């Protein structure tokens, strides 16, 4: 095996890369644009490589080394059809291993231990590793999935605001604040909803938690509905000896107080982030050659 | 006032027109393509006029009479911004009155009486008339509204099917049937959801009712959630002396057994359909000149 390897978090907002040496030490990091291999394969490839080159430069190495080093890339969609293999085939690294974003998140949070992770950002998804075997649930997206996502919290909020406007459901300080934001014009709320992407809805998530903390009944109801979805998903994954549950993502802290006591008792801080997970898998690749951790 | 008038139901699937004489008798009817004034004003205008011309021909009258006769057009979006006025200004009739689809639906179902209508098709919307004053709630669309629509029933079903697939919620014959339809591949369900419009989701509504009738627990839960939304909306509109509630739309019959007993007791058959409503308003226009029923 060679001297260096590259670990890459190919994320939907940006790509981050780290160069490591044979002992797993990070020598340099780099960043580039987004990787969305399902929707924009070409730019994803460009950004993955750019992040790696920046990491090499930051480590004081020649960026042309990308052609000589092995790399591990974690990115959403790697398990969809042939996308992962296509990315592996198209990348210029000496050898490439493309795994899902969940695989590097799990490795980052748990290291080599068993456990469960739940990630709550614009979307929501769960993964578990038991006796070294990992699997996941959720993450099916905004329209018919992601029940505990920021996007769902925001969508539920706007729906509740319109029901309150129609006097079908009770108003609250939060529904009043939302309607005021749109000049008390339901048509403008609908216009926003039809023009918006999940991340636009997700911007309302912190407000929902803020108002829930101030005992707003509608906010509490929305958060409790999402927390119930988390409870049901964790219960679907949990086994008696499961050592820990790690919550990841921008809403992880906000959800903590709302979780079921059985799950709270298992909460642990993640050991590291997703890039850390990619780095650890790259170190394994450097150490063992072809890893068996896909 | 003249001898004839035209009533037009400018619907999102097709336009239907009827020519009436001074006594309100329908002399002929005609049909043409869709009117969606918010999304396609130009073709809406073409189709409204085409339906009217066909109605005149069917009545044995000269289609060029469109320039000489008054017309009442009911169409969705007539109350949004200046759309209604723009349509009135652009139509070639001797005089045009553009009202909402709800106005002609209410007139068709209730005639001149007070009461409530609830329309359940791809969307869901409610209107009421009390002491001659009408108002409406709901109808805010697929993303954050239309809780009792066919589209929402279908969306809820696919969401429940994925939760069952993940073993987060119980499976049922219905969730099994849905997953089998997509080759037990959740990615394919997600793909459908992301590529689909409300009417595509709405195609699952009859299946949900069928399975609910066969005691499928998931189907019953989905229908009960929608029926609860109907109950809450009707309660928001209802007043003590309200004489009747009419259910309209493709799902009206299917919802009947699921309604609250208080509302069931008030159910009445609609007197006529939406075109009937447009015809009645056209007759008023012919009789009274400028009507005050907008």
Rg for CA atoms of chain A:
21 Å
Going by CATH, what is the homologous superfamily of the largest domain in chain A? ATPase, nucleotide binding domain
* Largest interface, Cβ cutoff 8 Å: A-B, 30 and 29 residues
Q: Which oligomerization state do the chains in this entry correspond to? A: homodimer
Low-confidence stretches of chain A: none
Strand order of the largest sheet of chain A: 3-2-1-4-5
User: Helix count of chain A, per DSSP?
Assistant: 12
> How far apart are the first and last residues' alpha carbons of chain A, in Å?
19 Å
Averaged pLDDT of chain A: 94
Fraction of residues in H or I helices of chain A: 40-55%
Could you spell the SSE succession of chain A in H and E letters?
EEEHEHEHEEEHHHHHHEHHH
The level 1 CATH classification of the largest domain in chain A is Alpha Beta
CATH topology of the largest domain in chain A: Nucleotidyltransferase, domain 5
CATH architecture title of the largest domain in chain A: 2-Layer Sandwich
């Amino acid at each position: 095996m060679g001297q260096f390897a590259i670990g890459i978090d190919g994320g939907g907002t940006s790509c981050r890369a780290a160069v490591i040496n044979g002992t797993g030490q990070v020598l340099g990091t780099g960043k580039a644009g987004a990787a969305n291999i399902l929707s924009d394969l070409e730019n994803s490839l460009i950004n993955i490589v750019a992040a790696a080159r920046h990491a090499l430069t930051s480590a004081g190495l020649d960026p042309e080394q990308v052609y000589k080093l092995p790399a591990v890339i974690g990115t959403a969609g790697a398990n969809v059809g042939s996308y992962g293999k296509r990315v592996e085939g198209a990348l210029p690294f000496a050898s490439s291993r493309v795994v899902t974003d969940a695989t590097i998140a799990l490795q980052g949070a748990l290291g080599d231990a068993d456990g469960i992770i739940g990630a709550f950002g614009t979307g929501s998804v769960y993964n578990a590793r038991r006796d070294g075997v990992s699997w996941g649930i959720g993450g099916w997206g905004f329209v018919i999935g992601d029940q505990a996502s920021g996007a769902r919290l925001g969508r539920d909020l706007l729906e509740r605001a319109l029901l309150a406007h129609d006097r079908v459901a009770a108003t609250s300080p939060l529904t009043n604040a939302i309607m005021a934001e749109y000049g008390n014009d339901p048509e403008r709320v609908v216009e926003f909803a039809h023009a918006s992407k999940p991340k636009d809805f997700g911007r309302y998530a912190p407000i929902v938690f803020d108002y829930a903390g101030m005992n707003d009944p509608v906010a509490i109801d929305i958060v409790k509905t999402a927390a119930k979805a988390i409870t049901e998903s964790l219960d679907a994954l949990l086994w008696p000896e499961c050592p820990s549950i790690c919550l990841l993502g921008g809403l992880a802290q906000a959800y903590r107080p709302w979780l079921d006591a059985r799950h709270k008792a298992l909460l642990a801080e993640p050991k590291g982030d997703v890039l850390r997970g990619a780095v650890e898998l790259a170190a394994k690749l450097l150490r063992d050659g072809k890893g068996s951790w896909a």
